[in-house]
Amino acid sequence: MTTCFQVRAACPTMAVVAAAASTALAQVDLALSGMYFNQGNNFTTTTLAGQCPTMVRARFSTGSTSAVAGVDAILRVFQNGEEIAGSPFFSVNGPIAAPASPNLATIDHTLNFIVVPPQGSLEFVVEVDPGDAITETDEADNVSPPFARSFLCRDIVDFAYVTVDYTPGGGVPSTAYTQPGIGEGFLRGIYPVGEWNYHRVPFAPLTWTSNINGSNDALLTELLDIRQNEMTSAGYARPDFIYGWLPGNPFSGNGQASGIPGYAAFGNTDNSRFQRTLAHEIGHCFGLSHTSNTCLQPGIDVEHHLRNPLNLAVLHAAGQSDVMVAGLLTNQAWVNQSTINAELADSRTQCALGATAFEAPVLRVAGQVNHADDSITLVPAQRFPAGEPTAIDPAGDLIVRVLDATGAELGAVRTTAGSCRESCCAQTKGKSILHPTSLLYAAVAMPGDAVPSRVEVLDARTGRLRAAIDRTAHAPVIDQLTAGLDVGMATVGGGADAGPEACLRVAWHASDSDGDSLRTTILYSPDNGHRWIPIVHGATGEGEALIPLSSIPASRGSAIVRARVQDGLDVTDHDFVVTAQMIGNPPDVHIITPNASASHSEWSSVLLHASGWDLEDEYLPDAAFSWSSSIDGALGTGREFVVKHLSPGTHTITLLGTDLDGQSTQVQTVVTIVPRTVVVGDLSGDALVDGADLGALLARWGLPGRGDLDGSGQVDGGDLGLLLAAW
Known about the structure:
6 domains; Immunoglobulin-like; mainly beta; 6-stranded mixed beta sheet; Collagenase (Catalytic Domain)
């Protein structure tokens, strides 16, 4: 028997029949003329990342002077001579009218396939019109030669975000903008990695009471402190990047990064710009400066991340600006090859080589450099028992020294304060707007039992003293610290998303006989002092806070609340024990893909992509996720995989994420599968008609749905006849 393939509409119309007849009379020779691999953009010299969703676009020559209707194809992917899981792949947009002169700037001038390729060397083979549905002058070139591409290892990148309770205006930004699958959508679309572990920090929102246009460097210092030490002190992995979300767009430059390169950034939640702002600022963290580049090639938003909330198209034009052009809206930007290459070359996206970061006791020295008057203003230093010492920069313009009471040096580092940073707002008359200040942030390694008495910041070239902090005569005194549970309280500054819930109430009062300004951090330990989680940042010597229990890990008995008060170099701690049994938190689970209310053609790849992070367990493994359909039942287990066997109809797709404590979170989305017969009789999705398909048909006998090949409403003898004819 020969295998018979046929591409047809579910209900052919006279127009379709006429088109097929005219095609049969034309001089047609279908053959692959180009294959393009898109992980944001399709430059042939860009590294491709394994385990990253990829759109493969197949372009065809037709041998005809007019469009050829009804063209479809299958894509087979091989590794070491064996087809990978899920192969063959059916197009997500076929059949198409293949144009005589295809243009990559039109999404349906190519047949497009969605694949999640494994790491390693792969071979791609496209078979156009496999069932000979279209009469051609030459059928021998319908199967393409193998096209080889390598997909390299790229790491899971840990990206923590902080919501800022901005009291001068807006409060806490809405989760509709910050949540996984939305806030980092642009980032996922243009920066290919093994996976983006984008998750909230395990703390309450960061309260910020100063105007951001005058406290931008202070906010970046706070974010760097959270990343540098507070995450690890709380028992969590140190994130590769940290980002602060502000409500609306209160900052004059849209957003700002701590440096180029850097580790921290903040940005807006303005509807028209927030997704692009995040991707732009992380571009600075990758070491990229502003540019005037355009994309140069049509780009593809493979998972259609930017469908929400702006409903942007999958294809982005070659003339759009690169994401690193300053001051753009989300709909104006996509990505250039140079930007992707910089991200792929960054050490934080590289797969681990077995080395671990150097950890040591450090004194964090931070402040603001004012380039207008050449002054440096330092903030109180922070002592971290384990941190990443700042790497020595031989060309740095500043030396940061830590001295003991005798003047002996405890540690030093040469670093760069940098020049004025470019504002990330639009340029004026083609010239960049510069910030008058920049951030100084250095972690100086020193002996763990050392007592620092003076910090000096020196000009590296001349030795001139630029700034200093001296230990004062008296340490701060904590006069009061109380803590307890309040049930059914509304969180302070909770914003529109916050409702009444159980909270931890903390109040404190501290004083200093030297008259120094005080900086208070409130820490919480759920496990008798093994982990310390900051729940109030950068407060003054007196205050009160309500912390929602949903934002911190549960205590299984006695919890400890610690007030840490600093006056510059002195630190005073005071603890308060809270006896309370707290219920653990279910995991944060989100559906990244598919988009709600999206339509997909039958047999095309539907990418199921989950995000999951837990306050107690952190990054959830593949086994934590299970997917199901309201029509087809269980679909599989895993964070990310492709399904192509969804039955026609409207499906409620359910994702269930379960943590190690057995607590679960369930989320749903609705998608519609539009009927399409890619290969008549192929019920198993392998592009063949054989015994597997006969078994599938008999299992559905008398039922509607897949297997109803003749459209009668149920599987019966008519369908069996069609299957045997195609055998």
